[in-house]
Amino acid sequence: MKRENDTMSSALTLDTDIDEIIENFSFLDDWDDRYGYLIELGRALTPLDDALKNDRTKVQGCVSQVWVTSQEAGGLLQFRGASDAHIVSGLVAVTLALFSDRTPSEILSLDERETFQKIGLEEHITPQRANGLRAMVDRIKAIAAAS
pLDDT by residue (tens digit) across 91-113? Predict the structure, then answer.
């Protein structure tokens, strides 16, 4: 992952795309290693300014606190996010890698379940985290629909 100084105040950008993240998950043999990778991804997120952590950006439906912000640049939506929990921060990072830098129509037509199945997320995270992941995706798609 790299951080880039841009108009989004160091928005998360990935050296690797979502396909490489999926590939990296496939190289990891057990879920302890995969959870470790998720935590690594979460730690690589650019910290979200406290001013952006508010009721307007908070994702409802997550047990942990999660915030997602967006900005449009050149017809593409860019997302930033944060969580107060390590594994959930990794889920935020994966979700942002999947949806950022796409047009609203691409975001709305994207089937995130296919990606999450390739990684094995939905069958290896707790029901509460799965609900939070769904809430994050719903939030991102609502932003895309309103754009």
Answer: 999 999 999 999 999 999 999 99
